[in-house]
Design brief:
This protein has 293 residues and is α/β, with parallel strands linked by helices. Helices cover 41% and strands 14% of the residues. It has helices at residues 13-24, 42-51, 73-94, 126-141, 161-170, 188-200, 218-228, 258-261, 271-292; strands at residues 5-8, 29-30, 56-59, 97-103, 146-150, 153-154, 175-178, 182-183, 186-187, 206-209, 216-217, 235-238. Helix 3 runs parallel beside helix 4 and helix 5 packs across helix 9. The termini are far apart. Bound molecules: NADP nicotinamide-adenine-dinucleotide phosphate. The site of NADP nicotinamide-adenine-dinucleotide phosphate has 25 residues, from helix 1 and strand 4.
Length: 293
């Protein structure tokens, strides 16, 4: 990789591990804070790109509050649809390549087999719709870009489902978890590595599905998380109907990653390996926090 990488969203769950991965490869990175590059402010984007000349732009910034998006559509659209379009336009202009992150929630979940990149997207909620529009608007503008769709992220540097489960289990709270939604739990460290592989290899433009191997329900993910932590706690399986949320969720959003796998990089680990490493990383800190309460 020659040249600088601009990383947007470096403070987020995924972006923080992408930053570490980029730095571990010795690449030159600019990771501006939101005060320097605010994707909700077109003047901020204009001003940034007037001066910057990165070789690659990785966009991990997004409006990710799936339920809040149902009542905050315009902000979700600005960040997830309009901003990727602007980035695609600027990248074309300065001849940088763009790697934009998207989601399994672009699918409606009616499939029985893992979704390929070529499968029709039909998002259910406003978050998924805004992400899908962002993909399309950006691609229409810039045919050289890459969209990497990932799923069900967990990582050490932010809020995520396994962290919530661990905390609740350590506090002895009752655990009731949905067992009829299936996806690919994915560790941000593994996804970050895969994203940097795409950049390093100057991958062919297009969509790539990037996730850990295997699939699980939220219930299975919760059980494995507390098993790995050695916590004795009951988890009760419930249905989606028992846990109503403002945003509808796909009941099956497993991504077929064979396109990424065929590129010949080290295979993605399975999600259980990811959870084991995640638990090892965060458990001491969570135990200390719980003890202080
Ligand atoms: N989390 C998941 O389970 C999941 C699953 C599938 C796909 N994805 C996709 O993966 C990507 C990363 O998600 P994530 O969970 O890591 O996100 P996240 O933790 O919510 O982080 C979002 C990032 O976006 C930044 N951001 C928000 N508004 C901004 C603005 N106006 N200007 C510039 N930056 C702004 C945030 O910066 P501040 O620190 O300043 O707020 C933060 O760095 C997203 O594209 C998401 O759609 C996530």
């Amino acid at each position: 990789m020659n040249g600088e990488v601009l990383l947007i969203g470096a403070t987020g769950l995924l972006g923080s591990d992408v930053l570490l991965q980029l730095q571990s490869r010795g690449w030159t990175v600019d990771a501006p804070s939101r005060t320097v590059l605010d994707l909700e402010d077109p003047r901020s984007i204009d001003a940034y790109f007037l001066a910057a000349r990165p070789a690659w732009v990785i966009n991990c910034a997004a409006y990710t509050a799936v339920d809040a998006a149902e009542s905050d559509e315009s902000r979700a659209n600005v960040l997830n649809s309009v901003a990727p379009f602007s980035l695609a336009r600027f990248c074309k202009w300065i001849k940088a390549r763009l790697l934009h992150i998207s989601t399994d929630f672009v699918f409606d979940g009616n499939s029985n087999s893992p979704y390929k990149e070529t499968d029709e997207a039909r998002p259910l909620g406003l978050y998924g719709k805004s992400k899908f529009h962002g993909e399309r608007l950006a691609f229409d503008e810039n045919k050289e870009m890459i969209v990497a769709r990932t799923a069900w992220l967990f990582g050490s540097n932010g809020k995520c489902f396994p962290r919530t489960i661990l905390k609740a289990a350590l506090e002895g709270r009752e655990l009731r978890v949905v067992s009829d939604q299936i996806g690919n739990p994915s560790y941000t460290r593994d996804v970050a590595k895969a994203l940097c592989n795409l950049v390093a290899s100057d991958a062919v433009p297009g969509i790539y599905h990037v996730a850990n191997r295997g699939q699980a329900s939220w219930f299975e993910l919760a059980c494995e998380t507390i098993r790995m932590a050695g916590i004795k706690s009951e988890v009760q399986a419930i249905s989606t109907q028992d846990w109503p949320t403002p945003a509808p969720r796909p009941k099956y959003s497993v991504l077929d990653t064979s396109k990424y796998d065929s590129l010949g990089f080290e295979p993605m680990p399975d999600w259980q390996t990811g959870i084991a490493r995640f638990v090892e990383d965060v458990l001491p800190q969570l135990k200390a926090e719980t003890a202080r309460q």
